């Protein structure tokens, strides 16, 4: 195949899957001008550049309601280009019908892809079509294809064996009382502002009255017992200790990090146990909505969201949100909007939470809303042991 004639679709994955797998010399997109917006075309071309696909890309605009002119345009394209094939994976009904007619009369190969499996489906005249070489899509490529940008493309977590053990030690402490853990993380973060030695990772401070109501001595002692903090001195009006290392410090001063890292660690294990079924896995992926990164995240006014755990299985993006506490409707809307924007209609959404809501009616509302949004919820993760958590996660993301 030298020339791929592609029906343009609002779903970008439909636009690129054939070109990604066949790598033709030329790709001609046929569609309606109002749908082929410059932003979509720009993202599409960025994606092909990232995949090092050097095809000559052209665009042909057709009338939305003039069937005869669409057939004529398709015939003109075939007359002017060599070895043409039609991809029916995307596009609108009228153009699909026109392609069917032209394929039948001129014996043009016509096929489509199953986006869920990545399998090629022969539709008509496909005896000469070569077997496609399946290509995966990375997280950064998926976000770029959908008009965004990854702000922090590389995770800075070193998931060495010792740190993985520390993560699970901290999670075992956290899950005994997630709310107390969240409060304690806030206190540790505030203590740092008063007295933190960045070089030695040491903290030493008087305990203010507000701190004394929120500091949880049992959590602090448990952290010392498992070795993630050292040299603990805990008195009525004073506390001092040293973090084991910088990665542990990040886990303890931001309440959600431990749960996110447990989910990240378990999905890596699931992938390794299933022939590396995920081609890309990242934690804490910051995505920029317009694809233009303007400076530091702390000072930029760009619209950005953080994806707690982001997986790619072939072409399918999976968004995992982690909530170490109650789930709000806003959390569902955020997960839905981010997945729709950066993954499209074929993305999958999973929400992990210790509990949904203590209020019966509010809980039922969240469950129904999640069902309507096709968000799968795994509830009660703090009550699960490691294997139960991993199995529940594997059922939702495999």
In summary, what is this structure?
The chain is an alpha/beta fold and 398 residues long.
Number of H- or I-type helical stretches: 14
Listing every helix as H and every strand as E from the N terminus to the C terminus, the arrangement reads EHEHEHEHEEHEHHEEHHEEHHEEEHEHEH
Radius of gyration: 26 Å
Helix coverage percent of residues? 40-55%
Give me the secondary-structure category: alpha/beta
Poorly predicted spans: none
Task: Give the end-to-end Cα distance, rounded to a whole number of Å.
Answer: 34 Å
What is the beta-strand fraction? 15-25%
Give average pLDDT, whole number. Answer: 91
Number of strands: 16
Which outline best applies? elongated
- Major beta sheet, specifics? 6 strands, mixed
Strand arrangement across the biggest beta sheet: 3-2-1-4-5-6
Structure overview:
This protein is an alpha/beta fold and 398 residues long. Helix content is 43%, strand content 23%. The chain has helices at 12-22, 38-50, 67-80, 93-106, 139-145, 161-174, 178-194, 209-214, 217-225, 246-253, 257-273, 329-343, 360-372, 386-397; strands at residues 3-7, 26-31, 56-61, 84-87, 110-114, 119-124, 149-150, 196-197, 202-206, 229-234, 238-243, 280-288, 304-313, 316-323, 348-353, 375-379. A six-stranded mixed beta sheet has the order 3-2-1-4-5-6, sandwiched between helices. Strand 4, helix 4 (93-106) and strand 5 form a beta-alpha-beta unit. Helix 6 runs parallel beside helix 10 (246-253) and helix 6 (161-174) crosses helix 11 (257-273). The longest helix is centred in the middle third of the chain and has 17 residues, at 178-194. It is elongated. The two termini are 34 Å apart.
